[in-house]
Amino acid sequence: MREVVQRAEALLVRRAYRSTPQRRAIIAVLAAKKGEHLTAEEVFAAAKKTRPRIGLATVYRTLALLGKMGIVHHLRAEDGVSRYELSPAWRKARHHHLICLSCGSIREIEAAELDALYEKTALIHKFELVPQPLELWGYCQKCRAGFAAPR
After folding, report:
1. Residue 12: strand pairing partners
2. Which of 82, 113, 121, 132 makes the best surface tag, with the fewest CB within 10 Å?
3. The domain containing residue 35 runs over which residues?
């Protein structure tokens, strides 16, 4: 976790942004909650434990900035709720998302076959990829059991 915060702090400074205690707290929350997809309010509640004076608007602005810098990945579930996590480039394992159109659940999967296809395509086209998770939309097993999904 500390390594992620230090890398992000260095990137902020290199890009002429200030490395504030609030920004470091938000990055630390996301680094500590690897594999979880947090709402801004959840990030705010967790960051408030170490930075009691942090504001919700600061969290939103920081998440937007970190997204622009490629540190944070923003997911928007079908229910309209925005969720955030560390970007794949900032995590050790690349992963993808299965997002349910009915309940909005997000499940992380590892798919080496997809990653290999990405790499092969980039090599063929002499293209440098920026690791981004693939979002696959559909219906989870629980929701499919409750209704017949449209075809």
Report:
1. none
2. 113
3. 2-146
Does residue 122 form part of some domain? yes
Specify the number of domains making up the chain. 1
55 falls within a domain: yes
Question: Nearest CA to 40 among 17, 77, 14, 74?
Answer: 74
DSSP category for residue 87: -
Residue 76 lies inside a defined structural domain of this protein:
yes
pLDDT tens digit at each of 151 positions of the chain: 788 888 888 889 988 999 999 999 999 999 998 778 899 999 999 999 999 999 999 999 999 999 998 889 898 876 778 999 888 766 656 678 888 888 888 887 877 787 788 788 889 999 877 666 778 889 999 998 887 555 5
Indicate the DSSP class of residue 92.
Answer: S
CA-wise closest residue to 46 among 66, 64, 31: 31
Say whether pTM exceeds 0.70: no
**Which of 114, 121, 41 is CA-nearest to residue 84?**
41
